[in-house]
Amino acid sequence: MRQASLPAENLQAWSHFNNVELFDTSIEAHIFTEDGVDQGGGLRAKAHHGEGEPLVAVPLDLVLSKDRVAQCAKSDPRLKELIEAAASLFQTPRTAVLLFLVYQMTINSPDNQDPGLKLKTPFADYVQCLPKDIPLPTFYTPEERGLLSGTTLADALYQKSINLEREFDRLKEATDTIPWCQRVWWDEHTGCLDLGDWKLADAVYRSRAMELPRGAGVGMVPVVDMANHAADDRYNARFEVDDNAGTFLLVVRDAKSINDGDAKSINDGDEVTIMYGAGGACEMAFSYGFIEEHASSAREMFLSLSIPADDPLRLAKIRFAQEAPGVRIYVDKSDQVHWDSTFVWWACVNQEDGLEFQVEKTVDGDTELKASWRDAGLSADALHSKVLQDDLRDIFVLRAVVMIQQRVEDQGMQLAASEEDYDDTVPDEHNIRRPVYETIGRLRRLELDLLTRAYETLEAEKAKLLESATVRTYLERQMHSGVDPTGKYPEDDFS
């Protein structure tokens, strides 16, 4: 669908007509980094602001969240019809707002010839001012995607693309019988909605949604979401809500919000910045399309894990555990590498260790999968604590460390194997854009460094565990039984 666009400068007038207050702060269409890179739009102070002083105040009824979409539907019959038909998509805050964004895009689009679908709202005008060219990985070219080989972003992007297609198919199935949707979106001749529009709505939301203060959920805050990101020690503005005034405020960071107690101030001409999140390099590239210029570490990464195919309890474990099948590798504030996984314990304990599954009938006649550990009932979230309290704790931890280290090594080998292809690639204007090429290169370097450090940390942890009296006794006993202490059978044992 063709998108209607207005220059970002129009947000200044939009703010005036929708009671958004700008306190000596301007909205600018172009903000440049120290290296002269255009970051797109942003906010800039036009006078000195001391700590805690307001920069922007947005009426709460302009904060775009799931609840606000429901409120808008009360006065818009077609929007109400849409969210009732696509009820499964409306259940989550993200897809609820995506439905609303696609609806506003349709109202704005030159392709919309339906006279009954012209209800203009402040949100429709706001959406026109948002960028339509968003450098998120979901818009990478096939050649750019190829450069992600070996990075955790490659798997994340693959899963994201599948999910976006599924969501779009659900939208079509749910709304295909609504007359205006059939006519404007799905008709063979007059329909204009396609997967690219859903991807654009997702990119707009993902790159602009923020965690609202005081547990108010997630939403988009017009004008405030123009602010660019800065690292934890560099950003100079934060959020708060003024219930009495009914506004969402962007204010200068104060001493209470800074760990070192050093208050901030903003001078005339300074860019106003916020911190988007404390995620790792992959998450920043995935959600925002860039990695911090001064980042010295990938911070964290998520690697998938799988239960061995020859594990007789594999299917029962996967069904019962309901855990994300992977491990999080991360760096703490003291620059030490750690790992965290609840799924790995399901992968490395077996029936001979004391894990059992039973299928029981419920009072309704259905069947329910039950688990037990050492003949005692086991809940899905309790295995971790049970294993770490067990007399054979060191054995189970050793199995987990070996499994995770092997996964880290595999990921590192994939990344290293594709390094030559990346180095031999020459950016161009179309297939491989230079900003994307540089972002991918930074991600590759940071992730390889973290994988190397993680492997060394796990090796040290493994060596320490092998000195454990529990492990040494277990190894001596297993030496005569033909069982691999890491939880795998030896190659000549086909049982």
UniProtKB/TrEMBL annotation:
Record's GO cellular component terms: nucleus
Leader sequence segment: none
InterPro entries given in the database record: SET_dom, SET_dom_sf, SETD3_SETD6_MTase
Domain SET intervals: 18-277
Highest taxon, organism lineage: Eukaryota
GO function terms (MF aspect): protein-lysine N-methyltransferase activity
The protein, known as: SET domain-containing protein
Native source species: Capronia epimyces CBS 606.96
Source species taxonomy: Eukaryota, Fungi, Dikarya, Ascomycota, Pezizomycotina
